[in-house]
Amino acid sequence: MPNIRPVSDLRNYSEVLRDISVDEPVFLTKNGRGRYAIVDMEEYEKTKATIKLMSKLSEAEQSVKNGEWISGEDVKKELGI
C-alpha cells in the first residue's frame, strides 16, 4: 500500500525519511493532490539506469527497422574478438 502523506509532514522530515526504503517511496500531497515522490537513492539510480537502457534499446530497434544494422562478423571486428 502506498505511503501517502501531506507535504506539511516534512516539518518532521526525519519521520518521513524513516518511512522510505527501496521499492517503498513516500508520496507527498499538496492541497490534497499528489505532488512529489521521495525515493531511496538506490531506487532512483536503478530507475535512471532502466530508463537509459530502454532508450538505447528503442534506438537500436529503430535502427533495425531502418535497415541500419551491422553483421555479427562486423561486430566481432569492432570489438576485436
Features:
three-stranded mixed beta sheet, 2 domains, 3 strands, 81 residues, 48% helix, 3 helices, elongated, alpha+beta, single chain
Describe the structure.
The chain has about 80 residues and is an alpha+beta fold. It folds into 2 domains: about 35 residues; about 40 residues, no CATH class. The protein contains 3 helices and 3 strands; from the N terminus they run E-H-E-E-H-H. The longest helix is centred in the middle third of the chain and has 25 residues. The protein is elongated and about 60 Å long. The mean pLDDT is about 90.
The CA-CA distance between the termini, in Å, is 49 Å
The profile of the biggest β sheet is: 3 strands, mixed
Number of individual domains: 2
Q: Poorly predicted ranges (pLDDT <50, ≥5 residues)?
A: none
Q: What structural class do the secondary elements suggest?
A: alpha+beta
> Which overall shape is indicated by the principal axes computed on the Cα atoms?
elongated
Strand elements, count: 3
Mean pLDDT: 91
> Which value, in Å, is the CA radius of gyration?
21 Å
What is the element string, with H for helices and E for strands? EHEEHH
- Helical stretch count? 3
Range of strand content: 15-25%
Order of strands, main sheet, comes to: 1-2-3
Helix content: 40-55%
Give the topology.
Layout: E1 3-6, H1 13-18, E2 26-30, E3 33-38, H2 41-65, H3 72-79
Parallel strand pairs: 1-2
Antiparallel strand pairs: 2-3
